[in-house]
Design goal:
72% of the residues lie in helices and 6% in strands. It has helices at residues 3-12, 33-68, 74-99, 105-140, 144-150, and strands spanning 17-21, 24-28. The chain is mainly α.
Length: 160
C-alpha cells in the first residue's frame, strides 16, 4: 500500500479531512475531533435509550390496562370453550365444503366454458393442418395419404 492509499482510506473512514488547494491536496485532523464525535454518538444513543424506555413503560401500561377486563372468570372460561367449539365446527364445515367444491355450479360452468374454448382451439388447429395438407398436395403434387404418412397424421383425424 502506498501512502496515498492509506491517507485516502483515512479520509474515507472520516478520521482526517482533505482539501484541494491549487494543485496540492492538504490532509489534516484535529485531536479533539474524534472525542467530540464519540460524545455526540454517546448522547444520541442515550437519547435513543430514553425513548425506548419510555416506549417500554407505555407498552407495559397498555398491557396492564388490557389485562384489567380479562380476569379468568367462569363466564370467560365458558365463552373461550364455546369459541373453541365454534372454531372446530367452522373448520369441519370448511373441509366438508372443500369436498363438495367439485360440484359447485359456478365451477362447473367455468369448466364447461373452458372445455368449449379448448374444443374450438383443437378444431382450429385441425383445420390448419388440413389447409396445410391441401396446400402441400396442390403445390408439390403429393397424395394426401403420403402427406399424412410423412407427417405422422392419423387417418381418423377429424374435427371434434
Amino acid at each position: 500500500m502506498t501512502v496515498k492509499d492509506i491517507v485516502q482510506s483515512l479520509v474515507d473512514d472520516g478520521m482526517c479531512h482533505c482539501e484541494k488547494i491549487g494543485t496540492s491536496n492538504y490532509f489534516w485532523a484535529f485531536p479533539s475531533e474524534s472525542a467530540i464525535k464519540r460524545q455526540n454518538r454517546l448522547k444520541a444513543l442515550e437519547k435513543d435509550v430514553e425513548q425506548m424506555e419510555a416506549k417500554k413503560r407505555e407498552l407495559t401500561d397498555n398491557i396492564e390496562k388490557a389485562q384489567l377486563g380479562r380476569e379468568q372468570t367462569d363466564e370467560r372460561t365458558s365463552l373461550n370453550e364455546e369459541l373453541a367449539e365454534i372454531e372446530t365446527q367452522w373448520n369441519a364445515q370448511q373441509t366438508e365444503l372443500q369436498a363438495f367444491k367439485e360440484c359447485d355450479p359456478v365451477l362447473m360452468k367455468q369448466k364447461r366454458d373452458e372445455a368449449v374454448v379448448a374444443r374450438d382451439a383443437a378444431n382450429r388447429w385441425t383445420d390448419n393442418i388440413f389447409i396445410m395438407q391441401s396446400w402441400a398436395c396442390e403445390k408439390f403434387g403429393m397424395d394426401s395419404a403420403a402427406f399424412a404418412k410423412h407427417f405422422d397424421i392419423p387417418e381418423d383425424m377429424d374435427n371434434i
